[in-house]
Amino acid sequence: MLHNQLPDGFEAISINSGTVFHTEQETDEVRFGEWAFVPQYEEDAYVTKRDWRKLTQQEIRCLQSNDNRKDHNTIYVGDIPTKLRKQFEQFDLYECKNREEVLRKFRESPEKTHAMSKAMDEFLQPLSGGKPFHFHCLAANLPNIEMVACDTTSMPADHSELDKKYMGIHNDGTQYVTPYATHKLGNRLTINLGKDTRSFLFVNLSLAQALNMLKKKIDVVKHQIDIINISKYFFKYFPDYPVIKIRQKPYQYYIAPTDNCFHDGSTLGNKELDIIIVYFGAFQC
């Protein structure tokens, strides 16, 4: 479900007709600062089709949240509080051209960073319902990347943007469990700290629902379907299942159970560095 508290309401939401294998859709070139290249994808990656349109009233009713919303079955979107926004604005992050410059802004202003952290805690405490949460990362993505997620954990520390291979639409695997248990893993809160509007993309199915759909197509035991390969098989057999796109303006957040649904972020069409801050927990609002 989608719990939408954005000022633009469902005007900020669009839908498409599904996904395609990454080689079947032309990848746009990235030009930013010293970089000029065409992003590369992992071998099994699928990307979203670009035929975005507005939601129908029936689709809105299908997505709208109800009183049964939980941390594992709902996407939450909205604006951060004005007090917190002002804390972030003090860092002048719009000047940054890479992640190291972003990190330097926080390192060089410890008092501002402490005040920001305190304001974040004040914002997150009510959303956490008393459950633990923690800071995950400050991240930066180049503009005009169709699907921004990539696995850099096995790459050398001095890797460059050219070394990255993007995952395409995917589910996270922060803990190895079966697709029927990913609803227990909580969610993440991501705030857009950049200058441009970015997009959050998701499929409105849990991994358990996706696995049950696959069972009608293939022998999931024989194919050893798990949280590592389920996205590859799902989009192979269900390429026409639509993807939802949420327009995320600067200082807006999304909360999503990214272990429990297919998703990604996008900076396609943007001109400036994409900057996000991410927290893990079990948030609800």
Topology:
Blueprint: E1 2-4, E2 13-15, E3 19-21, E4 30-32, E5 35-37, E6 40-41, E7 46-48, E8 53-54, H1 57-63, E9 75-79, H2 82-89, H3 99-107, H4 110-128, E10 134-141, E11 165-166, E12 187-192, E13 198-202, H5 207-215, H6 230-237, E14 244-248, E15 252-256, E16 263-266, E17 274-281
Parallel strand pairs: 1-9, 6-11
Antiparallel strand pairs: 2-8, 2-14, 3-7, 4-5, 9-15, 10-17, 12-15, 12-17, 13-14, 13-16
Helix pairs in contact: 2-4, 5-6
Features:
285 residues; alpha+beta; six-stranded mixed sheet; five-stranded antiparallel sheet; 17 strands
> How many H/I helical runs?
6
Radius of gyration: 19 Å
Overall pLDDT level: 96
Which shape, going by the Cα principal axes?
A: globular
* Largest sheet entry: 6 strands, mixed
| Low-pLDDT regions | none
Question: Order of strands in the sheet with the most strands?
Answer: 1-9-15-12-17-10
End-to-end C-alpha gap: 13 Å
Helix and strand run: EEEEEEEEHEHHHEEEEHHEEEE
Proportion of residues in extended strands: 15-25%
Which structural class should the secondary elements be placed in?
alpha+beta
Please characterize this protein's 3D structure.
The radius of gyration is 19 Å and the shape is globular. The protein has six helices and 17 strands. The protein has helices at residues 57-63, 82-89, 99-107, 110-128, 207-215, 230-237; strands at residues 2-4, 13-15, 19-21, 30-32, 35-37, 40-41, 46-48, 53-54, 75-79, 134-141, 165-166, 187-192, 198-202, 244-248, 252-256, 263-266, 274-281. The protein is of the alpha+beta class and 285 residues long.
